[in-house]
């Protein structure tokens, strides 16, 4: 007899053997025991979670001659006929390759005939979301009013692609992803019965690589057993799945943190020469930095991270030299790399460039606030002082320059974005109390009205226009209409208003929407005193110059 793949050999035969789907098992068994069998079921969930297996068990259970507590006996003539495929009353259809209207019409024409031997005629339609629109329409009437002897079981990984008219006619069951612990127990049981032992770390690696799909885990186990070893190590599993160990990834992270570019490039070369997947390595690196972030923020990272005790201890040591800002920036950088790497033929080059960039700390820090950056510098200083490192004035100047360079691009962008806003605030303070509107404002409103811009006109009723300077006009909203600023400030609306004002004034202008309170009230001073003082203290400790830029 030809070899039978493990995932087929160990396919569950009764409901209790299905892993981690108790919520589905309980409902189906109760419906079978009570005789309340519906005419249509929908099984949803990711691959390898037991949808088709459950459908096959269910088809035998409702037709079994000697059921036991809702389970099929798998010994009677009906059960054996369904198992070996000789009984034609249970029909399995792959909708991925049989998705046309004609295929569904055949079902519709045949379903009216009574089953030959079984109690129910069962149609199991796998990957049902692949049916065409016409096929769904052809299936709809049959699902709505099927004959009493017909039961449909639809299985799909993408239920959102099914029409609402189909969904509403089925009892829906969502299959859960299978936890790592449950997968480990199952594949360990299968390995023992196959007379093979596996290291605990190897079992966990197989479970993690399966991504919640038990079938995938069993397939990986099958491939590992094919190595011919009676005892499988963690390294054996690594060689099969084509990924690198956590130790290798940790070495890369250490080299990046130490800014050892040569070491990083050597490790990349080892990765490539060993035939490992570069894309998979980037994914592993992202996950590793995610684990570092968890170690940095969680009191009990071992409850969240799937790793050995020794590896978690190493992660805890590594995250001490990294701030959360650095870790999140690295994760963003690597995630962007992962996205573009799929379409590139030069994966190694992209990886090397990205890792060199990480070594040089040339990261996008636009999401980091000034306070976070100051905290980061303070942490660096404390680390150096704790290690007994004396900071020279030259080194202090370099750190200060690094921080300024890190922020220069963000500062430039912020200046460009807020230039008009700052000018308006300053000039509005100068005209505080002078709320005399521009004489042309009524004409501008009439122009909007005449041009059919009634919605925009209604937003601007009861507003005033203040000429801040030769190129900026402030539109002042009363407090009760402050919420309308968002609508007026939209690019398309702002352009219309600016064009109308420009035609009346004979020059180009820009508008700025403000509240009446903004004109009258002065900005409170000293809001950032504490932050500035903190920055000054750090600069003094570093013996470095400090430039305060008012933004």
At the fourth CATH level, what is the homologous superfamily of the largest domain? P-loop containing nucleotide triphosphate hydrolases
**Estimated radius of gyration:** 34 Å
- The helix-and-strand class reads alpha/beta
> How many E strands?
10
Taken as a percent bin, the fraction of beta residues is 5-15%
CATH architecture of the largest domain: 3-Layer(aba) Sandwich
Estimated helix fraction: 55-70%
For the terminal residues, how far apart are their CA atoms? Answer: 79 Å
Q: Specify the overall morphology.
A: flat
Residue-averaged pLDDT:
81
Strand order in the sheet with the most strands? 2-3-4-1-5
What is the CATH topology descriptor of the largest domain? Rossmann fold
Number of helices: 25
Q: Outline the low-pLDDT stretches.
A: 420-424, 521-527
CATH class of the largest domain: Alpha Beta
Largest sheet: 5 strands, parallel
Oligomer state equals single chain
Describe this structure in words.
The chain has five domains: 6-174, P-loop containing nucleotide triphosphate hydrolases (Rossmann fold, 3-Layer(aba) Sandwich); 180-241, Helicase, Ruva Protein, domain 3 (Orthogonal Bundle), CATH 1.10.8; 246-364, Zinc Finger, Delta Prime, domain 3; 365-419 and 525-551, no CATH class; 433-520, 2-Layer Sandwich (GMP Synthetase, Chain A, domain 3). Helices cover 55% and strands 9% of the residues. The protein is built from 25 helices and ten strands. The strands form three sheets. The protein has a five-stranded parallel beta sheet, covered by helices on one side. A three-stranded mixed beta sheet has the order 8-9-10, with helices on both faces. It has a two-stranded parallel sheet with strand order 6-7. Strand 3, helix 6 (133-144) and strand 4 (150-156) form a beta-alpha-beta unit. It is flat, with a radius of gyration of 34 Å.
